[in-house]
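re: that complex we talked abt at group meeting.

here r the seqs, copy pasted straight from the sheet so there may be weird spacing, ignore it
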Amino acid sequence: MNIILLSGGSGKRLWPLSNDIRSKQFIKIFKTHDGSYESMVQRVYRQIKAADPNANITIATSKTQVSTIHNQLGEDIGISVEPCRRDTFPAIVLATAYLTDIRGISPEESVVVCPVDPYVDDVYFESLKALAEQANTGESNLVLMGIEPTYPSEKYGYIIPKSNEILSSVATFKEKPDAATAQNYIARGALWNGGVFAYKLKYLLDKAHELIDFTDYEDLYAKYHTLDKISFDYAVAEKEDKIQVMRFAGQWKDLGTWNTLTEAMEENVVGNGLLNDRCTDVHIVNEMDVPILAMGLHDVIISASPEGILVSDKEQSSYIKPYVDGMEQQVMFAEKSWGSFRVIDVENESMTIKVTLNAGHSMNYHSHRNRDEVWVVISGQGGTVVDGMKQNVKTGDVITMSAGCRHTVTAYTELKLIEVQLGSDITVHDKQKFDLEYD
Amino acid sequence: MNIILLSGGSGKRLWPLSNDIRSKQFIKIFKTHDGSYESMVQRVYRQIKAADPNANITIATSKTQVSTIHNQLGEDIGISVEPCRRDTFPAIVLATAYLTDIRGISPEESVVVCPVDPYVDDVYFESLKALAEQANTGESNLVLMGIEPTYPSEKYGYIIPKSNEILSSVATFKEKPDAATAQNYIARGALWNGGVFAYKLKYLLDKAHELIDFTDYEDLYAKYHTLDKISFDYAVAEKEDKIQVMRFAGQWKDLGTWNTLTEAMEENVVGNGLLNDRCTDVHIVNEMDVPILAMGLHDVIISASPEGILVSDKEQSSYIKPYVDGMEQQVMFAEKSWGSFRVIDVENESMTIKVTLNAGHSMNYHSHRNRDEVWVVISGQGGTVVDGMKQNVKTGDVITMSAGCRHTVTAYTELKLIEVQLGSDITVHDKQKFDLEYD
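got the structure back, here u go
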């Protein structure tokens, strides 16, 4: 099975765990068998591999997520990188061209497209296989998953099938309705449109060439910024006559708010936290080092990260966005392909950061115009290059770098540094990258 | 007016703002006219000085608080330091002997003793003056303040006066009662015993010599650890016949729990915090750098410090102690006479701390057996001594100190350091102090 996972943008509705550079799908919140925690993207990846060990998975996403995806799924995962944000149609076309032109998949094969973040169990992936097989038959050009509604949601578009069979032609699509209209649709047998569908690669490429003037993946990538923002439903699905829908009745949850996310948590406390016996329906998700103590609360989510602390009535938590938009935020931590960093102290003319570099990884060779830096190695072994001079470093070593000085470090083992930045104008934009030429 | 303020022990009931080394009276929580915040001890000190600019104030406390008291009230404040914790009788005798033998106050003068932490307004201090004046008349040996009860509290002892006059003889004392008994006492005209009283210095010194074999302050201090733990009420007040009580009907609150403390706060948010419009009776006290967002909560206190985060129903918050006792706690920050420190990162074999040294102050000259240290100066100017070598330091300078190396730093201006400690056995107990002999 070929599968394209659409990994969407920054979600502030799960602040403080999601932020401008960490989307909700990367929050490690689901407990696994071995007691560790996995993110939505790790969970769905693991579930696909369990359903189909040979699944060929491609993640369609933006540049900002590439590093985090490698950090969580490893270096081998296929990623179709959108050079800039367009809507789902350009993104899906780009990923489809990536499959044929870069990964060499035959245009005769089918692919399943689905969001990266639904909370589902294993039966969902069996349905994905069935979708792909149905697309392979060529009976229709596009096979949608239609999710049997569990309540008259206003959040989803609806698909009206022609019959109540498992597999049916599509009569029509309906935009997100109000609750009364949704109730009416459901009475008529309507299904949720969860953005899950399958098609043969050549079908979509042909469609794309009708709408976009491009030759191949490289060409499409180069002119991606010129493309119109247009959704897949609008550009393709709603105009297609040879289109089928396959019913899905299993668990399918969109964990977009704290309220829905906590429903999917197996435990009430993730991280360092304690609920007294007078708490009911309280969840703690704590990514900080210090303990959280909750007493006498009901229906409350408490979440803490280096970015901030949320304490919210669960229902109220879905209204979080404008409050977070209004906050002045500095990115205080990030997981990257090479490791992670965390801001541990901010002063007027200094910033102190802990950097963890995974074994075998390096920083870019770079310099800063307006700040000096000091590294103190607190664990591990590595090698630094400072203005062309190479040196091995270990725990306790101190490296000082004046503004303008070019520097990098490679981790031989996992390497942790305290980095003290000193200057009157410290910003992430003050970074000049260089090629590293060894003498 | 001479006044002894009793500054009590560590209070965990205001965790995470109070801890083993910071008692509740040092939390800066009360907004002042200029928009800054003051602690209970700063507030009561300011109020006394406003009521009586010539007041001679002595704080009776333990060693652990001396540094914080100097940090908050300056170096000139009189402190009677208890070498170890006994009960109120030894502490008050020691402070009384301190007044006569060290401060040279005439034994004919009176003194008022009161706790450092009641939340009161200015009229209270006029009452203290009246207590002192009444003690000066010699009509009785001991003049107590009797606080008119506002509810049948189970937290206080009661004083039964002989009459309803402002000034009355004392009929008897009652231990902390249950609510029904308290109601009964109040019906009989009983008053709360807030631990506020006045006497002539010579009266208490004579009493002390009857009960304790000592010559003067120095002698008492030297044998303090041998004294029995006994309360002032038990040793003196309950046995005294010539004793009066003076009614006090003004505001008098004991801010010992989050519930009572938040009642005294003028604003709902101290520090970086935001309440949405669906919150009612929610208080935030945030000593961390990151924002707290509260949504849809009612009657909740949220408090965050580098030690932890409390989110509690206000009434439940009075049951906090066993939960905090059960936590493994490392002291993560402290205010000292010389400045402050804050732990900003903890790893298995390293700890990183930010140290702020006030201008003119120094660390002890010291070494560590089991850890190396690195200082990075992030602001200010100072002078270091490392194994006898003196050096001036400024922003950006790095000082490395191996285990065993003797070191100190003096701040010429306010000096901030990032201190990285490196070793497998990092503990505050690994510190050897030395005299600094300049060559």
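couple things i noticed - The radius of gyration of chain A is 24 Å. The first helix of chain A runs from residue 40 to 51.
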